[in-house]
Amino acid sequence: MLKLENVKKTYDGKDILKDINLEIGNGEIVSILGPSGCGKTTLLNLILGITEIDSGKICFDGTDITEVPMEKRGFNIVFQDYALFPNLNVYQNITYGLRNKPDISTKEEVEDLISLLGLEEHLEKKVEQLSGGQKQRVALARTMVMKPKILLLDEPLSALDGVIKESIKDRIKTIAKEYHLTTIIVTHDPEEALTLSDRVMILNEGGISQFAKPEEIIQNPKNNFIKKFILNQLEIKRNNIYALFQSELKEQVS
């Protein structure tokens, strides 16, 4: 279990995170949702260990890891831009971390993961030959071979559309279930958070507005901010889809 107690973070005299208290169970998928500037990425960085907290405590499985450096926490992240190595092929990217820690995953475990993510036919390809969805799967595989205690995902679906996005959603859920892996996702998209997660934490102005199951947030939003944020974002998304549809229809007619 990951537990944050009264975690605070300040930049240039401004409170970015205020008294964050939460518990995330083993194997749970949790999304951190909120508007730009609400503290989502800062919270992710605090959990990962990239950024130090100003006060409070972070515990994992009953151990205080507040002062434990990032490389010793055993957590891992898939960044928004995937951060793959362009000079290496897919298989070399996936197994890169095993160069220094070859005993973490066996050859059979690597092959099982490659199969789970449907990457068998792409192993000899270079990164530039891959689609966005394929790059995302390679980044997931590269992270998973290192057997992280917690998987962190920064806007994992933001560059994907349609069927590809749904496919990656399914694979993230499958990985969390197959490996009983605690997964924390940062997103600005309510639809992604509500359809992908066991629970959703909504941040606003550095504080937790609501932390609950998706159905509870939809049926009983805790305050007007949550109600307006979710409805407005979903409305923007519907309008964008409608505009795209109209544009494609116009092109077909012309």
What does this structure look like?
With 254 residues, this protein is α/β, with parallel strands linked by helices. The protein has a domain at 2-74 and 148-223: P-loop containing nucleotide triphosphate hydrolases (Rossmann fold), CATH 3.40.50.300. Helices cover 40% and strands 24% of the residues. It has nine helices and ten strands. The strands form two sheets. It has a six-stranded mixed beta sheet, with helices on both faces. Strand 7, helix 6 and strand 8 (182-187) form a beta-alpha-beta unit. The mean pLDDT is 88.
What's the topology here?
Layout: E1 2-11, E2 14-24, E3 29-33, H1 40-48, E4 55-60, E5 63-64, H2 70-73, E6 75-78, H3 90-94, H4 107-116, H5 132-144, E7 150-154, H6 162-178, E8 182-187, H7 190-196, E9 199-204, E10 207-212, H8 214-219, H9 224-253
Parallel strand pairs: 3-8, 3-9, 6-7, 7-8
Antiparallel strand pairs: 1-2, 1-4, 4-5, 9-10
Which features does this protein show?
254 residues, alpha/beta, Rossmann fold, four-stranded antiparallel sheet, 9 helices, 40% helix
Short structural description:
The chain has 254 residues and is an alpha/beta fold. Helices cover 40% and strands 24% of the residues. The protein has a domain at 2-74 and 148-223: 3-Layer(aba) Sandwich (Rossmann fold).
